[in-house]
Amino acid sequence: MSHSTSRRGLLFGAAAVSTGALLAGCTSNETKDESPAADAGSAADDKPGKHVTIGFAGPQADHGWLNAINDNAKNRAKKYSDVTLEITEGSNDTAAQIGQIETLINKKVDVLVVLPADGKALTQVGLKAMRAGIPVVNLDRIFNSPQAYRCWIGGDNYGMGLNAGTYIGEKLKGKSNARVVELAGLDNLELTKQRTQGFDDALKNYPNIKKVARQAAEFTVESGQAKMAQLLQAQSRFDALWNHDDDQGVGALRAIDQAGRDDFLMVGGAGALSAFQAIKQDDGVLKATVLYPPTMAASAIDLARALGQGKGVTGMAEFEIPASITLYSAVVDKDNVDRYMPTGFR
User: Fold this and answer.
1) Looking at the record, which segments are called Disordered (predicted)?
2) d(CA 13, CA 26)
């Protein structure tokens, strides 16, 4: 695999979205940062251009994935001598995050990158920025109105479930009366419902497989351990487990170890470094994880820079960047884990 191919693949978790594979104005120039996340991905236009001030506002980094979002944004911005990043402290309080974004609007930043704690609640401030002539890159959690952003980039929750279910289905397709269980995330989130729907739809293609139990956890180590213990106690036999989130998967693996169970395969979700390491070691139940790549924040900085410089996406005929980019939920197992290891988050 060539160096350039590996870097493009790392940018999006898989080289599956042709519109996002190469972003104009998105490579390193004079300023270098050596962190793997910052170096994950590249594009054709590496010449410094018009200076762009990018305002970045996200929720509080109270979860490994969200912390990785912030790190990816900061490290990506460091690569460019023509980018200044104004990053807010981050808050899960809607009013506080709106206030932070309004401050960035008042500072007259050139472009905004926003990962809203609540997309619906922050739609109005997205509209305010756009009306003020500040293009908004809406990251992951989507605003209610397409008028509130210029470009949306994010993960594919349905695709996570679909790819996890397909991977499990292929592993169990020769087994009669196969049984699977699901350890979901927060059930009040739409993304959790989408992940479950994708998983269920994939399993429809494997009539030999039945989902016999589902528990919802809370994306935390503690909840993962507690809910997995309940699943193990209730289900004396099953052949596969899909866990929606690698952070809560740390707790799930503890419960599995405590129960002395190794009679099934486990697939995780998101792409934590601990999951990659366990997959590579290959001495436990965790055999794969489906990506929800935090490198999307690095790509959002690329998109914001391109917007600020009036550029499009290299490799596409259009002068403008796309209105939306959905990243691919690649399956990472022992065969390809080395490729993705640099993108793993802690």
Assistant:
1) 27-50
2) 17
